[in-house]
Structures are given as structure tokens and as C-alpha cells.
Amino acid sequence: MQATLLSILGLALLGTLHAQDSIPVQADFQQDKLTGRWYSIGLASNSDWFKEKRHLMKMCTTIISTTAEGNLEVASTYPKGDQCVTRNSLYTKTEQPGRFSYTSPRWGSKHNIHVVETNYEEYALVATQISKSSGSSTMVLLYSRTKELSPERLEMFTQFSREQGLTDDEILILPQTDKCMADAA
């Protein structure tokens, strides 16, 4: 029984490691160029919260800055009802440039974050594997330096999200809004 349990745990760990390895990371990642203001243009996820809140989601503003330790402070401001809410996260750097980890203080979930592709001046594609006691999920974000991106970039986001196993109903180009955009200076 114990050997079977260890085998199952070993396979689960191997599967998790393989899933993390299958997500690419930007070659020659330059963290300092990722800092500044971004707009969340696209969001894809197979999590339950995304399915529940999808119809309420709008574009938001994210400010990325580097800490003295070389980690990333990520502050996202988004409309929620009639107010603006800012969520701050600290992404801890890993040994691999372009890859970060984050643990949610609220939910205890572990996030393995990959900056998949960026040209730093126009767009950034970020994929996150999320693990928590109730299971795991995938999230893909498309950031832009402006509120609009070319159809080619939107298609790249959609295609990459599909490659991560997400379905079309789990992929969303976020509706534009002016609400909370100025508040996130």
C-alpha cells in the first residue's frame, strides 16, 4: 500500500515537473525591460473562479517593478462593482530567468509563473501553473503597453492558450474600459 502511494505521488510530481518544463520561457529574458505599466488584454483560465467571474471581467492596469532583491512587485488595478481594487503580488525570482514563483496569502495556492514571450515594448505573454489542495489550473495572460493589440498578437495568445489545453470558452479578450485606468499611475 505504501509503495503504491509513493508511486502515485512520484508520478504526480513527475507530471507537475513535466508540465512546468513544457511551458517555454523568453530567451535572454531581461527583467528590467518588463517593468512599467501594462494593460491586461487577454485572460485564459480553466479555474473555477474564472468560469464564475468571466462575465464580469474587464481590462485592467498592471504596474510591474523590481525589488532590491531582484523579485517583481506586481500591482493590478481592476474595476470591481463601482470601485477600483488593487491586488499586490510579489513574484519571487527562480534560478531560471523569466520564471517566478508566488504563493497566495489568501488561498495558499502556489503559482509557477513563466514569461513565455515578450518584445518588452508592445506585448508580454505570461503563463501560470496554479496548484492548490483542491487541484491545479492553468492561466495565461496577455499584456500590452497600450489598450489595443494587433489581431496577430491576439491570435498568438489564443493559439498559445489552446496549446496549454484551454478551450475557446476558457479564453477571453477582456472588454476595454476607462474605469480604474487612471487610478493605477
UniProtKB/TrEMBL annotation:
Residues 35-178 form the Lipocalin/cytosolic fatty-acid binding domain. SUPFAM superfamilies: Lipocalins (SSF50814). Its EC number is 5.3.99.2. Keywords: Cytoplasm, Disulfide bond, Endoplasmic reticulum, Fatty acid biosynthesis, Fatty acid metabolism, Glycoprotein, Golgi apparatus, Isomerase, Lipid biosynthesis, Lipid metabolism, Mast cell degranulation, Membrane, Nucleus, Prostaglandin biosynthesis, Prostaglandin metabolism, Secreted, Signal, Transport. One of its GO terms (cellular component) is Golgi apparatus. Residues 1-19 form the signal peptide. Transmembrane segments: none annotated. GO terms for biological process: mast cell degranulation; prostaglandin biosynthetic process. It is found in: Cytoplasm, Perinuclear region; Golgi apparatus; Nucleus membrane; Rough endoplasmic reticulum. InterPro entries: Calycin (IPR012674), Lipocalin (IPR002345), Lipocalin_CS (IPR022272), Lipocln_cytosolic_FA-bd_dom (IPR000566). The keyword Transcription does not apply. It comes from the Eukaryota. Gene3D superfamilies: 2.40.128.20. GO terms for molecular function: prostaglandin-D synthase activity; small molecule binding. Its main location: cytoplasm. It catalyses: prostaglandin H2 = prostaglandin D2. Belongs to the calycin superfamily. Lipocalin family. Monomer. PANTHER family: LIPOCALIN (PTHR11430), PROSTAGLANDIN-H2 D-ISOMERASE (PTHR11430:SF86). This is Prostaglandin-H2 D-isomerase. The gene is Lipo.
